[in-house]
């Protein structure tokens, strides 16, 4: 195997290497133009991919979190004027309907930048570059390696009242909670709502919370406001427990409804 050394390059040299070796970055990627003027400066390199979509490439020879916003600015400008670009570079058969994508090329990317990329709706790809010079050869050989962007976490599932109540495994306890919710609605008909939240149920009067119910496997917990409007809570395991806490919840409802 031939010996080689890694070499540092200027941004101008990197730009030249990208222009001449676009196909090494992505299959079907073709150079279109460089240093094209936009409303926020001159974009580094403009390319077109195999789907005939324009690709804005932003290049840095040092790790730089600011390149993401800079690239997005260029992407915004090109997207706004995509039909003009399609006419200007008609030999590349650019499809103006396709979404413009962003390509960032740098020697490394911070985890901050990588994490930000996963939330973008603009298609974005990250490529780490290394420049090599083989022994006995003056030519610089670029190597581009794609860095994966993690997927954003899935949004939480919609919480329903049934979903919250199914946490209770005792059928009789579940039935008692359901009956209690219906009874509470009759304290001020048309003004009481119970909304499922993560792990519990929020009870409101005229949109103001006065109590929570937190299901457990074989009982439940009621949290409500005392006379000083301080939150208090306790387990409800028997009818006597409920008889003690229910008046507190009703009194809290009356105060919140005023």
SSE map:
Layout: E1 4-6, H1 11-20, H2 22-25, E2 30-38, E3 41-48, E4 54-59, H3 66-80, H4 82-88, E5 101-106, H5 111-117, E6 124-134, E7 140-147, H6 161-165, H7 171-185, E8 192-197, E9 200-205, E10 208-215, E11 220-225, E12 231-236, H8 239-257
N/C terminus separation = 84 Å
Instruction: Tell me what the CATH architecture of the largest domain is.
Output: 3-Layer(aba) Sandwich
Note the run of SSEs as H and E.
EHHEEEHHEHEEHHEEEEEH
**How large, in whole angstroms, is the Cα Rg?**
31 Å
Percent of residues in helices comes to 25-40%
Number of helices: 8
Please report the total strand number as a whole number: 12
Write down the domain tally. 2
Largest sheet: 7 strands, mixed
Low-confidence stretches: none
